[in-house]
Amino acid sequence: MTPELSTIVVTHRSAGEAAHCIASLRRAFREEGIAAEILLVDCGSGPEEAEWLLEIPADRHLLLEENRGYSGGLNAGLAAARADTLLLSNADVVFSPGAVTLLLRALGGKRAGAAAPLSVWDAEGRVKLPPGFAPGFLQDLAQLAAGRFRVLDDWRFARFARETRRLWEEGGRARHLSGAVLAARRDVFDAAGRFDERFPFEYEETEWEDRVRSEGLDLLFVPQARVRHLWAVSASRSPETRSRRLASEGLYRRRRYGRAGQALLERAARLAAPEPEGESVAGDPPRFAARAGAAVALSPNRSGLPFAAADLAEGFHLPEEIRSGLPPGTWHFTVFRKDDGRPMERFFWEKPS
To answer: Of 65, 133, 135, 157, which is least surrounded by CB within 10 A?
Structure first.
């Protein structure tokens, strides 16, 4: 019997996270009455990891000998999937009750290209991850020039904060969706094609979403559907992550902006402001006092964009479950007004090695 939904979970050195992900999916399918299959795709994690993965109750285990990246893992799953409706997921995601049903419902419109849930970072659910962050030449240039033009930085931050808050609260059409969880119909892949495996880490969903939008289809953010995404945890385990990310970034920029545009961005990167902006946060983990009408944003980028954020209606400290998974280096915090997104204070924190 053909299932109504094929779920593809892609893992690389993340057997523990994959087990929790699939357990949450099994529970969702049972409680929401969804006839679904689960395909667990591993991207070259090795024989020891493969033994653990085979103990996870997926309907099919696709153990790839090489690391084809998230794009290659998804493509392998798409080739084996039987349903006309597809749910694509990182292994480090846990689905909340009702999330799958809401995502499938969002695909009912003819213009629906893909749908994504609201992702929270912590177990308490206070820290919301960004719906997405659409690249563009001027956007990328401004990211690299962050710290040199404060007025521009504040304007960009406020604009992103307003749009992000709108999507978190109301949902609807978005310019870009995070690729951690995506729901789509098979006919969308027939029209736009599958993922480009020349992107080894990140940008694969960005480039695919460009093609989806070029077909006149919408990218839909569904905030009522919630998942927990353990962002950066599995990526931090691979020593190849940085080089693979840079390779994807360079390829995307060459294809979209041309070699001249890429060269200009590389020059801008060399001229970036050298010092972090704002005051150093005292304490480890960082703590922020309650502040009515405000929120605090966390980003790895000097611009503060894109960001995860928590409301400051109550005092906030960075949860240890998040802190422990962050790579060492400089992290940027921005306290901002929720009503208009305007930054109020900027801080930085040096996470020790």
So the answer is: 65
